Structures are given as structure tokens and as C-alpha cells.
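Here is one chain, start to finish.
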Amino acid sequence: MYKRILVPVDGSEGARRALDEAIKLAQLSGAQLQAVYVLEHPTRVVDVSAGFAEQMPVRDTSSETATSVLGEARERLAALADQGSVRAVDAYGDSLATVLARTIDEFDTDLVVMYSHGRSGIRRLFAGSVAESLLHDTTVPLLLLRNGEQE
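Its structure:
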């Protein structure tokens, strides 16, 4: 069965559901589970020749959000005792899918459990799909949960 399960978390209800499902799988299989939050930093507009740099807000809340989201994940992982861990990963300008693919390799992941927004059509074209990108960027199985109401 699975030995190492990775779950991307972002504080959304879909991510909470994915983490809960991953916890159930880890309990059944005895797998290690890692919840991962990807820190993204907004891009800045800089024109070196003109000496212009876009003014950014003084406060960057991405680390505060990561702390909050990973704290909640840590509480949910308490059911696994020493089988669960949390991790924040900095994107350094890479896409979410690229960062997650790298993290999947680093954790030697057997299974990724994540949710999908379920976007389609033009919204998917512009917003992209992290899940779809991961399908192309990794050979690790993905368990995708649909973001929405539980039945």
C-alpha cells in the first residue's frame, strides 16, 4: 500500500477535506503523511533603467497564513501521532505545480491527495489547473477530491 502521502493545504474547505481523507488512508496503511503549504510571493514590477520599483505593501501575510494553515493541519494530524508532519515550502517564483512536483520527489511520495476547484472552460484556461499540471509533471498517483458540498 502507500508509505508516504503528501497533501497540499491552503486553508480552503477543499484542502481540509483532502487532508481528512489522507489521514484516513494513512491510518489504514500506516503511511507517513506530510501536509505542505506553498508560500507564494507577489511579483514586483521593476524597471532597472528608470530606477523604478513598484511599491509593495509593508506587510507580507503569506508567512502568517502559512503558520495558521499549518497549525490547523498539525491539529488534524494529531490523530496520527508521529506519522504526520507539516512543511512550508517557498515557491521562489515557480508555479505551484512545479513546487509541488519538486516536493513530491523530495518526500519520496507514493500518493498525493488533493482537491480540485473543478474549473472548466475559459476559467480553467486562464486560471490553469495545478492538478492537471501535476498529472503531466509527476508519475505519482493523485487522488483528487472535488471541491464542493459533501454528499
